[in-house]
Every structure is written in C-alpha cells, then in structure tokens.
Design a protein that fits this description.
The chain is an alpha+beta fold. The chain is built from 23 helices and six strands. It has a six-stranded antiparallel beta sheet with strand order 1-2-3-4-5-6, with no helix packed on it.
Length: 655
C-alpha cells in the first residue's frame, strides 16, 4: 500500500471511528430514554441493565453506520480540500478517482460486513432482547412494583411501603386496589402487613402471598336509595394468595413488541414468506368458494335449471306476500354475504401486511449494505466540493441528506406495509432518489466544476427566503463637508480644544461609544481644516471602526439565527408529542423539516459565534453546543447563556 493510500485510510478511519462512537453514544441515550420506564425504579442490577442494552445495541447500527460513513466522508475530503492537499495531489497528477480508490475498497468490505451483521447479528439480538424483557419480570418479579407509589399490574393497583430480601421478593405494608370488571371503579381494597412474591422461569403466573391482612369490598344494592348508605363488607385473613398474569407485568413490553420478521435471517424469511403466501392463497380460494356456495348459484347450475326458466317471470307469478318474503330473504342473504366479505377483508389485509413486512425485512438487509456505498459516494465528492472540514458546515449537509434519506425510507416502508407500493420499491425508494445525486456530485467533483459552499451563503439564502435584514451601519462613513450645515456650539468649542489624535479616535470609534452623527461630523470638519482629509483617514483605516462594525454584523446574525433555532427546537418538541398521540403524514413531514431547519440554524448560530470569538478573543462556545446537537429540547439553555455572553461582550466593547 502506497503512502498516499495509508494516509487517506488513516484519516478516514480516525474520523469514522470518532463519529461512529459519538453517534452510537447518542443513540444509546435515545434507547435509555425510550425504555426509561422499564429500567428506572425497578431495582435492577447493573449487569441486568447492561445486558438489556447490549441486546438492543445492534438494532441501532443500521441508523448509525450510514450516517457515520456520510459524515466521515464529508469531513475527510472536505479537510483535504480545505488544506489544499487535493490541489497538491492534482498538481502531482493524482485525480479524485485515484484518491477515492482505496476508501472505495474499504467501503465495499464494510458493506459486506454490514450485510452479514444485519442478516445474522441483528435478528439474533432482537430475539434475545424480546425474550430477555419477558425473562426480567420472571427473574425479578418485584421490578413491577415500586416502593411508595401505586404500580398498575393487570387488574390491580399495588402499593408497598418497603421491599427487602433476595430479589426484593418480600414486601411490607401492602395495599392493593382491585378494579371492577365493569370498569366502574375500585370495589375491593386489600391491606396486608407482609407479602411475598413467587415466580419461576417455567411459569407465566406470578404468585402474590399476603399475610395478616383484611379487605374491604363495596356492596352495590339493587335499590338506589340503599346505595347512598355506602354499604361494604369487611373480612380478615391470615393468608391470602393472588395470582397475576405475568404477561401484564410489563405493559411497555406488549406495546413495543417487535414483530417476528425482524428476528429472522434471509433463509428463514424466504421459508416463512413461502408458507404465508401459500396459506394466503389457500384462504383466499376457500373464502371465494364459500361465498360462491352461499349465493346458491352453484346449486342452480348443478340442477341445470337456470336455462329452463326466467327467474323474473317465476317471481312475478307468486303472490305479493311470497314475493315480499323472497325479496327479504334475498336481501338478508346479500347483507350477510357482504358482512362476511368485509370481515374477511380485514383479516386478509392483515395477512397481506404481514407478508409485506417480511419482504421489507428481506430487502432491508441488502439496503443497509448498499446505503454505506451510497453515502460514501455522496459524502466524498460533496466534501471535495464544499472544501470545508471540521464539525461545522459538514454537519449541516450530513444532517440534511441523512434526514431526507431516513424520512423517505420510513415513508416508503410505511406505504409498502399497507400495500400502496411493492415492498421492493418501498425499501429502495430513498436509494433510488439519492442515487442520481451521488452520480451528479461525483461527476461534478471529478470534473472540478464545484464551487465553494459556505455557511454564510446558506445564511444569506435563508435571509432572502424570509426577507430578513442584517445589521446596517447607523452612521454613514463619509460626510459631505461642503453642504453639511452645523452650528459652532459648545460641542464645536469642546472639539476645537482637542488634539488631532483625539479627534481621529472620535471619528473612528463614534459608533462604538455611541457618539451622535453631528458630533462625529464636526470632528471630521475640524480635522479637514487642520489638513487631514477623509481620504487620508480612510487610507489609514481611521475613518471607520471596521472591527466593531463586523462585530455588530455578526451579533445581529447570531441573534437572528439563534431565534430561528429556538423556534424550531420548540416545534420539534411539540410535533414529537403530537406524533406520539397520532402520527400522520403532516406531522411526520413537519417533524422532519423542523429537525432539518433546527440543525441548519444551530450550525449557522455556531458559525457566527466563532466569528465573534475571533474578533473579541473571548471564549463563548462551550459544551452547550454539544448538548444542543444531541438534545434539541435543551437548546433554550444554550440560547440564554450565549445571548447573555454576547451581551456582556458588547457592553465591554462599548465602555
């Protein structure tokens, strides 16, 4: 391997490894947040929590891997172009194709590895994860009951004062509210001094043994007048046993259970699909045959009576009463048949959806591998075009492309599940859309016709869209001395006593120290009388405080971009809550666009802060930026802190 290949491979692997680890940690936090209700307050040991996360981690690789390849490609080739290393390569006769050759081989190997990982490791991990969630409740049944609060377990609300002993199986001061079957409220309250939980891996029933207690049970008399007396029954017991269905110990498990198609390899999926499709065709034929038989048409054809008589004439020959009975019977038969067809349609739609989900799982395993190749051929030429490395602008482009990729992929699979399009098109929809972009960017970078795309250009683009104005000079730089009308007042006399150096400072720093336009104009006129013209002041950079003007401009843009980032961070929270209640196309599109624009304005805000830091030589950007990248809900803290810092800097500058 040549030195150039080793250098490119080392640069890419270093960036790729760093990005992959950071993104992996971010998605781990997302998993913890998603399953916090199952982990928090359950008295689980660290080993059980680690095992819980370990089984779930492989499922986030399909999300992290393509994004890592995309971001690492943009950052690596963007850094090479920014530091003019590509220019040196081209001057030595090394083209972009040659610079991408080694990493292309690496990406191909990575794609093959990701395919086998998706086909073997992820299904096994999903299977272990779902079973482990069920086994946690069996190994530590007390996890379903938290101390000092009501815990809903099936048809019971259980509260305990304290848990102790091995696996916290022993309970102290137990209070149980048993719900009524008709849902009208709690009809039984059970209290016990002690309790014990028993379960086994081979049983799906949790045994709750209560000792030294009593219970109250509401009595509902038939007469309403007697109900107002609130009668109840009370009994005591030395020992009582309650059996609880173990499947209800963890409601989150039932709600978030992953379908079995995610737990199968390609060979198992093909076998399952073949069985599902065969059974579906058989059920479809049986249902059609049943409908055909219920209509009576088959029996009429078998007796060869259809051609021998006209059904309408036969009915007309009957009496009115019999005709009515015939029509009612026919109508009831049709209504019953339609009801049966509607019921079977729901069942068949579920079977079709199940088959589509299995086909989607097959195509997803190949799509994960191809997405790495696609993201590389988007990221590498894009990095060479934008000529920017680091964590600024590349993140904007990476997030824009990946959010679009992930959104179209999710949208396509959702439609494919419902049968709107074929599973193959649904899974490969995002790839089909982005593949032309990859070809275009690669061709553009190879032909060296790409321009430099900067964060300032993106900011100006949004300003034009929203018709926004940045900071404008409040004081014109030049003064029309011949036509300017002024009075020789106290200000004039005060300025006349000043030396040239002081007057020059007043002219240059009038904006910084908030001098009026008239005060500055008089200082310029006095300097002009002393032989120092405005042209000389401009040539010596003494006419205008360009540093302060730039600072004001960047502060104005910072405030503008930070406010937009704050608005979109709030929109993300609002739309995320809306999607939890009811996810529809509008909320999904709005959520995706909010994320996209939030990250765009966050990077633009960070870009302006860097410029302010450069002018003032003061540190502003802290760890808050990293937290804002990971958690959009925490941006308001970043917004408040940075605005306060910028305000302090501006105050210091104007003193």
């Amino acid at each position: 391997m040549k030195i150039l290949d080793r250098y490119l491979l080392k640069s890419f692997l270093t960036t790729f490894g760093t990005v992959f680890v950071i993104l992996f940690l971010i998605f781990i936090l997302q998993i913890v947040w998603l399953y916090i209700s199952e982990l928090a307050g359950k008295d689980l040991s660290f080993s059980l929590i680690a095992k819980f996360l370990l089984f779930k981690l492989p499922s986030i690789v399909p999300m992290v891997l393509p994004l890592s390849v995309l971001l690492a490609s943009i950052m690596t080739y963007g850094s090479l172009s920014e530091n003019y290393e590509f220019a040196a390569m081209k001057s030595s006769g090394i083209s972009l194709q040659r610079a991408m050759k080694t990493l292309t081989y690496f990406i191909l190997i990575l794609s093959v590895v990701s395919f086998f990982f998706a086909n073997n490791v992820i299904p096994y991990a999903e299977y272990k994860f779902q079973n482990f969630r069920r086994e946690i409740a069996q190994m530590t049944p007390a996890m379903a009951i938290a101390e000092g609060q009501l815990s809903e377990v099936g048809n019971y609300n259980i509260e305990v004062e304290k848990k102790y002993g091995k696996d916290n199986r022993f309970l102290k001061n137990v209070t149980i509210h048993r719900k009524a079957l008709n849902g009208e409220g709690n009809i039984t309250v059970i209290k016990a001094k002690t309790g014990e939980l028993e379960s086994s891996l081979s049983s799906n029933v949790l045994k709750l043994i209560l000792k030294d207690g009593y219970y109250y049970e509401d009595v509902l008399p038939a007469k309403y007048e007697e109900r107002q007396k609130l009668p109840f029954a009370k009994a005591t017991f030395k020992k009582d046993i309650i059996y609880i269905d173990l499947t209800k110990l963890n409601s989150a498990q039932n709600q978030g259970a992953v379908t079995t198609n995610n737990m199968l390899t390609i060979g198992q999926l093909r076998y399952t699909i073949d069985s599902l499709e065969t059974n579906f065709k058989k059920d479809l034929l049986n249902n059609a045959d049943n409908v055909y038989q219920r209509s009576g048409i088959r029996s009429m054809y078998k007796t060869n009576t259809v051609a021998n008589f006209d059904l309408t004439e036969q009915i007309d020959a009957l009496s009115k009463q019999i005709q009515t009975n015939v029509y009612q019977s026919a109508f009831s038969n049709i209504e019953s048949t339609l009801f049966s067809i509607d019921g079977n349609k729901v069942e068949f739609d579920g079977k079709v959806k199940n088959i589509n989900m299995h086909w989607i799982s097959v195509h997803e395993k190949f799509m994960i591998a191809f997405s790495c190749i696609l993201m590389f051929f988007i990221g590498a030429p894009l990095g060479a075009i934008i000529r920017k490395g680091g964590m600024g602008l590349p993140i904007v482009f990476a997030m824009i492309i990946f959010i679009f990729f992930h959104f179209t992929n999710t949208f396509g699979k959702k439609i494919a599940q419902e049968g709107g399009i074929t599973p193959s098109i649904g899974v490969w929809l995002s790839t089909l859309i982005l593949a032309p972009l990859a070809i275009y960017l690669t061709k553009t970078a190879i032909n060296d016709i790409g321009g430099i795309i900067t964060a300032d250009q993106i900011g100006d683009f949004f300003k034009r869209i929203f018709r926004l104005q940045s900071y404008q000079e409040s004081v014109p730089a030049l003064v029309d001395i011949e036509n300017y009308k002024y009075e020789k007042d106290s200000d004039w006399n005060k300025l006349s006593e000043m030396n040239d150096e002081t007057l020059i400072k007043i002219v240059k720093f009038s904006n910084r120290y908030n001098y009026s336009y008239d005060y500055r104009a008089k200082a310029i006129m006095l300097l002009n009388e002393r032989g120092i013209t405005q042209q000389q002041l401009a040539e010596n950079n003494q006419l205008l405080d360009t540093e302060f003007e730039q600072l004001k401009f960047h502060i104005s843009d910072f405030k503008l971009h930070s406010k937009f980032a704050l608005v979109f961070s709030i929109l993300i929270i609002v739309l995320a809550n809306a999607m939890r209640n009811q996810a529809n196309t509008i909320t999904i599109i709005g959520f995706a666009l909010s994320i996209l624009l939030y990250y765009t304005f966050l990077i633009l805000t960070n870009n302006e802060l860097k410029k302010i830091e450069k002018i003032t030589t003061q540190r502003i950007i802290g760890i808050g930026f990293i937290f804002s990248l990971i958690f959009s809900g925490l941006y308001f803290i970043f917004f408040i802190i940075n605005n306060r810092k910028v305000k302090q800097i501006l105050t210091t500058y104007t003193q």
